[in-house]
Amino acid sequence: MKLIAWNCNMAFRKKAEFILAHNPDIVVISECENPEKLKFPANVQLPKDILWYGTNPHKGLGVFSYSDYRFQLLDCHNPSFQNILPIAVTGGKFDFTLFAIWANNPQDKDGQYVTQVWKAINYYEDLIKETKTILIGDFNSNTIWDKPRREGNHTTVVNKLEDKNIFSTYHKYFNQIQGKEEHPTLYLYRHENKPYHLDYCFASNDFIEALESVQIGTYQEWTMLSDHKPIIIKFNL
């Protein structure tokens, strides 16, 4: 099973072919237009299922299946955590829970980025299991921005997930330390000298044990399309 998460910087319909070149099963796209606007070119493979959520028709969170997997937004979804979507994934070799994430809620005065993830993983604590769980997308966070007096910083998110045997696929695969990542997923304002790692796929240990590869898109290949680079994860399941 191959998953890709990418903040496409809007207009996914014009960029889908570049993601599809990697033959994904499931794709999580931040800053994606709504389904009514997704008019893909005739030569581009159409998704078999789409789940989209957002208040701006040009800029929401889209989840796409290019395989047998199907999506259902769970009834427990709390819209207070904008664009953190608990999804039942079914129809493939096995069922699992996917949290599609684009951490960006300017209306929350407590914090619009990692604070959203922190609040969500506490709210959905009973749903986030030690097996068959994946959280993936644009977290807009990194340990380098931790504020020690803020309970919900990046490190506390990582630690809370690790307590449930849920780990970052990138850090496991490349043996990296949080905050010292060698592969950026964002180049601020598309400037090569402003690299950051903000996009993640956290997976329960049953997935980690089947982790085959993790790939981060390069600056040269993706910068014309977005300031973010895709994270591509393959599990041998």
Keywords:
single chain, 237 residues, alpha+beta, 6-stranded mixed β-sheet, exonuclease, Exonuclease III, nuclease
In short:
The protein has helices at residues 16-20, 114-123, 154-162, 169-174, 205-208, 219-222, and strands at 2-7, 26-32, 49-53, 60-65, 70-73, 84-90, 96-102, 133-138, 166-168, 186-187, 195-196, 199-204, 211-216, 231-235.
Can you describe what's shown?
- Keywords: Exonuclease, Hydrolase, Nuclease.
- The protein has 237 residues and is an alpha+beta fold.
- It has one domain (2-235): Endonuclease/exonuclease/phosphatase (Deoxyribonuclease I, Chain A, 4-Layer Sandwich).
- Helix content is 16%, strand content 30%.
- It contains 6 helices and 14 strands.
- The protein has helices at 16-20, 114-123, 154-162, 169-174, 205-208, 219-222; strands spanning 2-7, 26-32, 49-53, 60-65, 70-73, 84-90, 96-102, 133-138, 166-168, 186-187, 195-196, 199-204, 211-216, 231-235.
- The strands form 3 sheets. A 6-stranded mixed beta sheet has the order 3-4-2-1-14-13. It has a 6-stranded mixed beta sheet with strand order 5-6-7-8-12-9. A two-stranded antiparallel sheet has the order 10-11.
- A hairpin with a 5-residue loop joins strand 6 and strand 7 (96-102).
- The termini are close together.
- The model has no long low-confidence stretch (mean pLDDT 96).
